[in-house]
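I need you to check the entry underneath: sequence plus fold tokens. Let me know what the token row says about the fold.

>
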Amino acid sequence: MSNPLYENIKRDPRYAQLVRQRGRFAATLALLVIIVFFSFVLLVAFVPSFIAARIFEGSNLTVGFALGFFQFVFFCLLTWVYVRRANGEFDSLNEQIVQDALKKS
């Protein structure tokens, strides 16, 4: 036997909307991570001279180090964006769906 609460949630069109939105958002962020990460890997593999180049004359800082640091910051930023949206929009919609399903049960 299935729980009526879960059945009410599954039947709610907002639930399908939530699953779609959350999945699309997560896929978009995952694609960004893959593009940024593998772009760096491909640069290292195929253009090592660019990665080894100094940021400016006399500097010990290389382009590779700067790009690696950029990745770290970028991935932290994407995590923040996901958590902010998940805790805001997605959790709010989730709470509405659950509350309405509880009323129907």
Q: What stands out?
A: The chain has one domain: 4-104.
